[in-house]
Design a protein that fits this description.
With 564 residues, the chain is mostly helical. The chain folds into two domains: 384 residues, Na+/H+ antiporter like fold (Up-down Bundle); 148 residues, Rossmann fold, CATH 3.40.50.720. Strands 3-2-1-4-5-6 form a six-stranded parallel β-sheet, with helices on both faces. Helix 23 links the parallel strand 4 and strand 5.
Length: 564
């Protein structure tokens, strides 16, 4: 009987076995899974145990993980929100790439490398790892934080910068004349702009009708297959047009974020992304040549540390200049201090074209891989060292985020507390198309709400500065649903003192407590009961739609008032 032959089956089994063996151990010690995948890849790769030798084949498959990851990020970032970030994408991001490239290239020239080699090397090492950084930010629930947004803005410009960098690398590796060089660059930029415009037009006018058609089949397998087709199809288009495939996936996700199908698509794509991303990090680990490191250990260690310290210092200075305080700027600098996956692509193109020698190329690959491997440890150390300072500045972080997101918002409802009751009130308001903003001091609640795209922010509802940033002077009503009775009363006192025009709705423990709250200035109070959250939400809607305010609900068993 002939043996069944499936290409790379044994390699995939080895990769999966290594992943499920090492990753749980790292999770038990609260270490990043990314570090586990990098270590697993380095151990089973050709430079250690040698169980998997075809690195390129693994990388070709695992790069799909980066594509799906960027697609999921795009789902959380609609076009309107991206417009708000344009200052940081094209200001901060461009400054980081240009400054870092110039400094690294200048140092390389000082050490005797040719100018063309130095320029390409500077550009390659200026790029950071989009996959690694976004994964770390997601694990730490910091992707939507103040420094997380600026970090992502820099990464987004770096992805855009790959186009001219690859074009320049291919040109320097050929015998083209000046006119041909200029034409090649113009052509590359033209293709990039054309690809972006086509994707935006496709997303605006074709994506929703297509998904409506796919959803009408009422078959989850067809819906999932259609999602994979769109992600990979758009990624392929950008790849053929000279852009990175990951950038195409990001644009596809961003377009889909404006449709009602984004949550179902996210649920379907997430398993593919997680598995393939793990393979991607393992393929990076496979490039770590322990023999070459052992022969040049001092030199390579100095290169890794030099690269990371230099990039971190430049990014810290730039992010500070763009408004981050020192602790958050430090976190951003360390988070982006490593080399990136696109450095591998640029390095291979440079080696093929003769811009990099074989020895230099291999050294660059090892330095980049090691810098990626140690980043999770460095960011954990820096996060612990800066935790107190960041906690002290949390108030300003929240104020900055809210002020950016809610500029011009008026006639809205403020919800203090986003637990069970707060969520019920928010759902009723959303059903009636009534705008609201919620604040909660529970980071888990805020993180979960942010992942769902809900306008919920971290902070203490008693903070007058926070209420001003929320636009309390422009709000018409506040609903206090905090679990702490003392904190609820303190919030009521702050609202009545600083924002007396706002009607305040609350919940109390019983009828007597509700009467006390109304005596203190609450417009309406409802006693805790099974239907208290619904009663509170419906009373808010009733008032906003022109109805009157009921008195305190004396009996918890009273039915909720009907919507007017």
């Amino acid at each position: 009987m002939d043996k069944i032959h499936v290409p790379y089956l044994i390699e995939m089994l080895i990769l999966l076995s290594a992943a499920v063996t090492i990753a749980p151990l790292f999770k038990r010690f609260k270490l990043s899974p990314v570090l586990a995948y990098l270590l697993a890849g380095s151990l089973i790769g050709p430079y250690a145990l040698g169980y998997v030798n075809d690195i390129e084949a693994v990388q070709n498959v695992s790069e799909l993980g980066v594509i799906f990851l960027l697609f999921l990020v795009g789902l959380e970032l609609p076009l309107e929100r991206l417009k708000v970030m344009k200052k940081f994408v094209f200001g901060l991001g461009a400054a980081q790439v240009l400054c870092t490239s110039f400094v690294i290239a200048s140092i390389c020239i000082m050490f005797g490398l040719p100018t063309s080699t130095s320029v390409v090397l500077g550009g390659a090492l200026a790029l950071s790892s989009t996959a690694l950084v976004i994964q770390l930010l997601s694990e730490r629930h910091e992707l939507n934080s103040r420094y997380g947004r600026k970090t992502f803005a820099i990464l987004l410009f770096q992805d855009l910068a790959v186009v001219p960098l690859l074009a320049m690398t291919m040109i320097l590796g050929s015998d083209n004349e000046g006119a041909s060089i200029l034409w090649t660059l113009v052509t590359a930029f033209g293709k990039a702009i054309a690809a972006i415009i086509l994707i935006i037009l496709f997303g605006r006018y074709a994506l929703r009708p297509l998904y409506k058609y796919f959803a009408s089949a009422k078959n989850n397998e067809i819906f999932t297959a259609a999602s994979l087709l769109i992600v990979l199809g758009i990624s392929t288009v950008t790849g053929y047009m000279g852009l990175s495939m990951a950038l195409g996936a990001f644009l596809a996700g961003m377009m889909l974020a404006e449709t009602e199908y984004r949550h179902q698509v996210e649920i379907n794509i997430l398993p593919f992304s997680g598995l393939l991303l793990g393979l991607f990090f393992m393929s990076i680990g496979m490039t770590i040549d322990y023999g070459l490191i052992a022969d040049n250990v001092a030199q390579i260690v100095l290169m890794v540390l030099g690269l990371m310290v230099l990039k971190a210092l430049i990014i810290i200075a730039l992010t500070y200049a763009f408004g981050l305080d020192i602790p958050l700027a430090l976190r951003t600098g360390v988070m982006l201090s490593q080399g990136g996956e696109f450095a591998f692509v640029v390095t291979k193109v440079a080696m093929t074209g003769g811009v990099f020698s074989e020895e230099l190329g291999q050294t660059v690959l090892i330095v980049v891989a090691l810098s990626m491997a140690v980043t999770p440890l460095f960011i954990a150390i820096v996060a612990k060292l800066t935790s107190h300072a960041v906690a002290q500045s949390n108030n300003s972080v929240v104020l900055d985020t809210i002020a950016s997101d809610t500029h011009g918002m008026k006639n809205h409802v403020i919800i203090a507390g986003f637990g069970r009751v707060g969520k019920t009130v928010a759902a009723l308001l959303e059903k009636q198309n009534i705008p609201y903003l919620a604040v909660d001091a529970d980071t888990k609640q805020v993180s979960e709400a942010s992942e769902q795209g809900l306008p919920v922010y971290y902070g203490n509802a008693c903070n007058v500065a926070l209420l001003e940033a929320i636009g309390a002077d422009r709000a018409v009503l506040a609903v206090i649903t905090l679990d702490s009775a003392a904190l609820s009363r303190k919030t009521l006192d702050v609202l009545r003192t600083h924002f007396p025009h706002i009607q305040v709705f609350m919940r109390g423990k019983n009828a007597a407590d509700c009467a006390d709250l109304e005596a203190l200035g609450a417009a309406f109070a409802v006693a805790e009961s099974a239907n208290a959250s619904t009663a509170l939400g419906q009373q808010v809607v009733k008032v906003l739609q022109g109805g009157g305010v009921m008195g305190a609900v004396d009996d918890p068993r009273d039915p909720a008032p009907a919507l007017s």
